[in-house]
């Protein structure tokens, strides 16, 4: 049922937006924004290797928030991935040394 619903949506989108309004495919983008926290969280489940002896404890207000933005065009063009840290300084320990080529780090 989901497949049929999506097909109907895309057919209407093609007819009423792309064809009727003469929208060029290179002008259609999908942008996704994802937010998540790093560090110690107030509550949550932690999955670890049973051989590790570390203890994980929640501490209020001890996490940092990260925003990740990605964008793709209908013609297949991808923008660079943006990772946005909250604050004026970045803890470089949070950033892997082998960051994939093209990823961008920014501060809010």
Description:
This protein is an alpha+beta fold. The chain has one helix at 2-19, and strands spanning 29-39, 63-73, 82-85, 104-107. The protein has a 4-stranded mixed sheet with strand order 1-2-3-4, with no helix packed on it. Strand 2 (63-73) and strand 3 form a beta hairpin. The radius of gyration is 21 Å and the shape is elongated. The mean pLDDT is 79.
Give a concise summary.
With 108 residues, the chain is of the alpha+beta class.
The SS-based structural class is: alpha+beta
**Beta content:** 25-35%
Whole-number radius of gyration?
21 Å
Shape: elongated
Order of helices and strands: HEEEE
- Give the strand order, joined by hyphens, for the main sheet: 1-2-3-4
Largest sheet features: 4 strands, mixed
Number of domains: 1
Number of helices: 1
